[in-house]
Amino acid sequence: MGFTVTKNSQTLVVPSSRRPPDASPSPSSTVFRWSGCSGMIHVFGRGVEPTKVIREAVAKVLVPYYPVAGRLTEDTDDGQLQVACTGEGVWFTEASVDCSLEDVSYLRSKPLMIPKEELLPSPPGGVDHKDLIFMIQVTQFKCGGFTVAHKNTHVVFDGIGTGQFITALSELARGLVQPTVEPVWCREAIPTPNIPPINMSDFPAIPSFVFEHRILDIPLDDIRRVRKQFMEEMGLRCSVFDIVSAKIWQSRTRAIGLPSDADVSVNFTANIRQELCKELPAGGGYYGNCIHNVTVKATSGRIAGEPLVEVTKLVKEGKEGLSAKFARWLQGDPSEHRFGKIDYGTMC
Questions:
Q1: Residue 37: how many CB atoms within 10 A of its CB?
Q2: What is the superkingdom listed in this entry's lineage (predicted)?
Q3: Nearest Cα to 249, choosing from 311, 341, 316, 305?
Q4: What residue spans in the chain does CATH classification 3.30.559.10 cover?
Q5: Labelling 104: which of 77, 210, 293, 309 has CA 20 to 30 A away?
Q6: pLDDT for the residue 314
Q7: pLDDT reported for residue 25
Q8: Closest alpha carbon to 60 in 139, 177, 184, 182
Q9: What was the pLDDT predicted at 198?
């Protein structure tokens, strides 16, 4: 059965009051200066006038988070992306769908019974999405439930920063006068590595792949079992991320069936705020990119054949080497500021 999402209106939501006087063009973090976008869908069983409440909360949250209401531009000197604090606002989409959340299994089905593209916001025709920092869509269901979906650029946010912004938005929607965590821009506090400017044309193009989309359900009981086994065998704790990454890496390695001596790797980004505790404000609130790439490599035979706890150990050890990797990056080590090889044996 197909369900139709109707996008009833799209409007720009601007800050509810004037931006601060120091809201001049701001540089992005030296950690991440290339455009990229991520999206997320939140599901709520019920709400009172959610579209109105959330739209008003967006206008309020854009006051302390005034750069989010701006646009991405290029610095005329080095061509790097920066934020122009224009106060133009974020795109807000009001939508509705002709079914209840129960009809679509509360968006837990595999695959989704409503394509995620219909629930995620998209700019109207004629608007360049590459300049936008944040977009949001509220979709109301017949049962009174609703979804809140958003897209944001990685130039301004990392995962932790996105979570901080959405938490602030939800606090204002619940009636708080101001967010409990005061945001700070502070991009200039991120150290500049001792490397020459990066020209993206110097790097080979990422090969074009045809991706297979899969939803993998890893029960919490299985995760708890592996964590317990890891503690018993290694005498150490491991995170849910370690286990899930290891499981996906192992499953994919088995599926693609490379020769046992072929190299396979997993790439992910990790938080480096702890490495910059002297540079960033002590009270927190930094919501910009503060990540560094981690690559873990092993042979196909090892990843496919060893117990999951051993693969989990490799992922954990890769994360623990982050401090040294980041220090080498700051010192200008060319191996730390080049993109890793991306091929059939690489999982990102």
A1: 14
A2: Eukaryota
A3: 311
A4: 5-183, 203-347
A5: 210
A6: 96
A7: 46
A8: 177
A9: 56
From the CB of residue 73, how many other CB atoms can be counted at a distance below 10 Å? 13
The token duo for 345 is: 């044996």
**What contacts 309, CB < 8 A, 6 or more positions away?**
226, 229, 230, 233, 234
Q: How many CB atoms lie within 10 A of CB 21?
A: 6
pLDDT at 79 over 70: no
Q: Which tokens belong to 282?
A: 């002590």
Confidence of residue 28 (pLDDT cuts 50, 70, 90): low
Give how far Cα 1 sits from Cα of 50, 98, 112, 114, 117, Å. 27, 12, 12, 10, 17
Strand order in the sheet with 146-153: 5-13, 90-97, 134-140, 146-153, 37-44
Minimal CA–CA distance to 24: which of 140, 239, 187, 143?
187
The per-residue pLDDT of the chain, averaged, comes to 85
Q: Which CATH number is associated with domain 203-347?
A: 3.30.559.10
Phi, psi dihedral angles at 226 (to 5 degrees): -70, -40
Indicate the pTM of the whole model.
0.82
CA–CA separation, 268 vs 58, rounded Å?
Answer: 31
Cα angle for residues 164, 168, 170 (degrees, 5° grid): 115
Q: Say which residue the tokens 């001049």 belong to.
A: 24
pLDDT grade for 138, boundaries at 50, 70 and 90: very high
- Mean per-residue pLDDT, 15-35: 59
pLDDT at 20: 56
Tell me which fold the domain 5-183 belongs to.
Answer: Chloramphenicol Acetyltransferase (3.30.559)
In a 13 Å sphere around the CA of 44, the CA atoms on its Cβ side amount to 16
